[in-house]
Design goal:
It contains 19 helices and 5 strands. By secondary structure, the protein is mainly alpha-helical. Among the domains are: about 110 residues, no CATH class; about 100 residues, no CATH class. It has a 5-stranded mixed β-sheet with strand order 2-1-3-5-4, with helices on both faces. Strand 4 and strand 5 form a beta hairpin. Helix 9 packs antiparallel against helix 10 and helix 11 crosses helix 12. The longest helix is centred in the C-terminal third of the chain and has 46 residues. It is globular and about 75 Å long.
Length: about 500
């Protein structure tokens, strides 16, 4: 018997499936891993290094400012300023900068996602984040990593502006101006070198041939340079004077091949000056030697629609590495961080393009193999250089504690070897009579020592500085240093 349709009970609606949680994008996972690696592997172990104390002392309201030499720029001081108003405790400073660095890594490479795709951007960010110096310097108050991220974002914003219109184009051009400003505030010479290929692209790339892109780059450069130029006139008599002093501080810059220095210091030391050391673990430097031919290969093989997205980051990387490879008389691994960040973009795209036609399993395996090999080359240098940096900063803190224990307490003055980091840790002003950080004369030092607790720090094997021969020695065990306390300057 057939039941009339009118009497058939209506079908109950199926319960709606619960919404699936949205997965964190691959780039977000890379940034998260980078942040966690800093928090676990760097932040708890490091005090503030030499250069860091110079930068943070400029904005620390509780410590005297160390001498700020001509080659430096103040951008990284501005980044550290918010936490320094609350505390100068090194782990807090490093925690703040480490969290910022992870967020900035995500933001900088996310700019490229519409240009290269999510997978390529995540792989590029992963390759860059895995470099040992990227990890070690992420939470430190040093400018090079931040220049790198500004350069990645600036080049991506400029290329995206070429295809955008209306408010989106204006927003992207503001991004160009802002990131070029940031790079120039962080390191004035690097900002100039970054602007050069961006300006050339604004002239040579047809979709960018308009006043807006050129003005965004030029305006960002001018805004970022303004504090540096103003300080040049206030302290060195003008731009030419500051450049002349900067060159002298950096060993009389001029045309010379410094690539050998960069290779020798690739895995440390953190500052190679003069760079006469043998390369550490040279069997782990193959990736660096492979970068130029790989970059050339991806430029040659770039598809017509993606040539500019390959050529511009390679051009920016070449420009930003030029002074460190062709003009500087010493080297440090962090100097080439901007080049590594920019080259990671076309290299990641080229790798994924090369394996794309072989199936997802093959592609995933190839990418995993490359990442594992890359991590294997970085793990040893990271552990070694972290240990060296940890020992160095611990030595600064130990000497500062001895100073405080022997009556050198604020307001006070520290001079001699390693005066800026030791003085900052002790809460004292720092000064020197000679060298690149010379900011005192013998007469001024004598006058200060008569009214302030004053100490000179020198290597024990060298004895006291000439002006401190009648000062009281206090040897600091385990450091190789002796503190010479001025008469009446300490208890």
């Amino acid at each position: 018997m057939t039941v009339p349709a009118a009497l058939t009970p209506p079908a109950l609606p199926r319960p709606a499936a619960p919404p699936r949680p949205r997965a964190l994008p691959a780039l977000g996972l890379v940034a998260l891993a980078y942040g966690l690696a800093q928090l676990a592997g760097v932040v708890p172990w490091l005090g503030l290094g030499w250069d860091e104390t110079v930068y943070v002392s400029q904005v620390d309201p509780h410590r005297p400012a160390a001498y700020f030499s001509a080659p430096r720029s103040r951008g990284i001081s501005y980044l550290a300023a918010p936490v320094l108003w609350l505390t100068h405790w090194p782990p807090a400073v490093h925690l703040w900068l480490g969290l910022l660095a992870a967020a900035a890594l995500y933001g900088a490479f996310a700019v490229w996602r519409p240009l290269l795709g999510a997978g390529r951007c995540a792989l590029a960010a992963g390759l860059f984040a895995a470099v040992w110096s990227t990890l070690l310097y992420g939470p430190q108050a040093m400018p090079n990593l931040w220049v790198a991220l500004c350069a990645v974002a600036a080049s991506g914003c400029l290329l995206r502006a070429a295809a955008a219109t209306g408010p989106a184009r204006r927003a992207l051009l503001l991004g160009v101006a802002g990131t070029v400003t940031g790079a120039t505030l962080l390191r004035f010479p690097d900002g100039c070198w970054l602007a050069l290929p961006l300006l050339l692209a604004s002239v040579l790339h047809r979709p960018l041939r308009a006043p807006g892109p050129f003005a965004a780059v030029a305006g960002g450069l001018a805004a970022g340079a303004a504090p540096w130029v103003g300080e040049a006139y206030a302290r060195w008599g003008g731009i030419a004077g500051r450049l002349r002093v900067s060159s002298a501080v950096q060993g009389d810059m001029g045309l010379r091949w410094a690539g050998g220095d960069a290779w020798r210091s690739l895995n440390g030391p953190l500052l190679c000056r003069p760079c006469t050391v043998e390369p550490a673990q040279p069997w782990l430097t193959w990736w660096w030697l492979a970068l130029p031919p790989l970059a050339a290969a991806v430029c040659v093989r770039a598809r017509r629609g993606r040539r500019i997205t390959t050529w511009l980051p390679v051009g920016c990387a070449a420009a930003l590495s030029a002074p460190y490879l062709l003009a500087l008389g010493y080297s440090a691994p962090r100097f080439l961080l901007p080049a590594y960040a920019l080259l990671a973009l076309p290299l990641a795209a080229g790798l994924l393009d090369a394996v794309a036609g072989h199936g997802p399993r093959y592609a995933a395996g190839a990418v995993a193999a490359v990442l594992c090999l890359h991590l294997a080359t970085q793990a040893g240098p990271f552990r070694h250089n972290l240990h060296v940096a940890r020992e160095t900063t611990a030595r600064y803190a130990k000497v500062a504690a001895y100073l405080n224990a022997h009556g050198i307490r604020p307001p006070c003055l520290v001079t001699g070897a390693q005066a800026p980091p030791i003085g900052y840790s002790a809460g004292c002003a720092s000064g020197n009579l000679a060298g690149n950080n010379r900011n005192l004369t013998r007469a001024r030092l004598t006058a200060k020592a008569a009214r302030l607790p004053t100490a000179a720090v020198a290597a024990t094997r060298h004895g006291p500085p000439p002006y401190a021969r009648d000062w009281r020695p206090v040897r600091v065990p385990g450091t190789g240093l002796t503190v010479w306390v001025a008469p009446g300057g300490g208890g």
